[in-house]
Design goal:
Blueprint: E1 5-8, E2 24-27, E3 31-38, H1 52-69, E4 77-84, H2 89-103, E5 109-114, E6 125-133
Parallel strand pairs: 4-5
Antiparallel strand pairs: 1-2, 3-6, 4-6
Helix pairs in contact: 1-2
Family: Belongs to the RutC family.
GO cellular component, one term: cytosol
Pfam family, one: Ribonuc_L-PSP
């Protein structure tokens, strides 16, 4: 059973829906899963690409695997935090293009955070999620 998530963009706040996320996500009491930040590490230990678009692809693949393990989909994502070592309009565009396709119209609450470093010097992107899970 899916737990409905209600999205809100109050008229007193900037309309985040125009760029693919919501200012507020409300979920009824239930189970929440807190998914650790996913980076461009591959299960087989393969090398991390220096290309941000490729790192984004691997991060989204890892997020998809986490959702599959929870038997959930993008519509059940309540909140996402995106950490980037080079947070600029251009790099945000690279990430958000792929992230928008992954979310498939779901618009979770989202925060973008510029950081000086992640868990390894070759990582440029990390995304964590809070997911409302069935049961």
């Amino acid at each position: 059973m899916d737990v409905p998530v209600t999205r809100q963009n109050p008229i007193t706040l900037p309309d985040a829906g125009l760029v693919g996320y919501s200012q507020i996500s409300v979920v009824c009491p239930g189970r929440l899963a807190f998914v650790s930040g996913q980076v461009a590490w591959q299960r087989d230990g393969g090398a991390v690409s220096a290309d941000l678009a490729e790192q984004t692809r691997v991060v989204i693949e890892n997020l998809s695997h986490a959702l599959d393990a929870l038997q959930a989909g993008p519509a059940q994502i309540v909140q996402m935090r995106i950490y980037m070592t080079d947070l600029r309009a251009e790099t945000q565009g690279v990430v958000m293009a792929q992230l928008g396709a992954f979310l498939a119209g779901a618009q979770p609450s989202l925060t973008g955070i510029g950081v000086s470093a992640l868990a390894s010097p070759d990582l440029q992107l990390e995304i964590e999620m809070v997911v409302s899970v069935p049961g």
